[in-house]
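As noted in the main text, all predictions were made from sequence alone. Below is one such record, for Signal peptidase I.
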Amino acid sequence: MSESLPQSETKKANQKQENPIVEIVKTVVMAVVLSFGIRTFVAEARYIPSSSMEPTLQINDRLIIEKMTYRFREPQRGEIIVFDATEAIEQLGWNGAFIKRVIGLPGDEVIVRDGDVMVNGQILKESYIQEAPKYDFGPVVVPDNSYLVLGDNRNNSSDSHVWGYVPDENIIGRATVRFWPFHRLGGIDENSAYADTLIESPQ
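Prediction:
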């Protein structure tokens, strides 16, 4: 003689077998939450819409922007950063995110003159730029908690020599990996990036 479950236990057993649609919804919601968390706190993908960072970065390059490093240390000279438009940029009618190379750190004196970029009286040896800058700029001293950034395509870049500095609170993260196009897949060369061996005193 078979025994049947009490009605209350049968009801509990049925409750455990949730509707497949509910399970799908839960899975999708969890995936969205995880994706949002990763994009907000860890890393996100971005693409290059302009030529301002050529030849290092080409139009339509796809990059991974990691966001963890700057939670533990400040940006370093030579790193390529992505940042939200500053107030000065927005006043020029632009918005969204920008990508440039860090040239001046807080307290640095920066001068652009005669085709050279000088930081604290020393000329940067920049093998990665499209061509030498054809404009003069400075001298300026980078304010606290801010950074002076320039595009590698110096003469076709709206950057700090046009609109000023990037406050650290505007920085989204650091460009680390190019994942598209596949034939240029890999890490982004930051020239390690301005080690003392890459800086020489003006003659």
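The helical segments are 7-16, 20-41, 87-91, 160-163. The chain has two domains: 7-40, 46-200. These features were considered when defining construct boundaries for the mutagenesis experiments described in Section 2.9.
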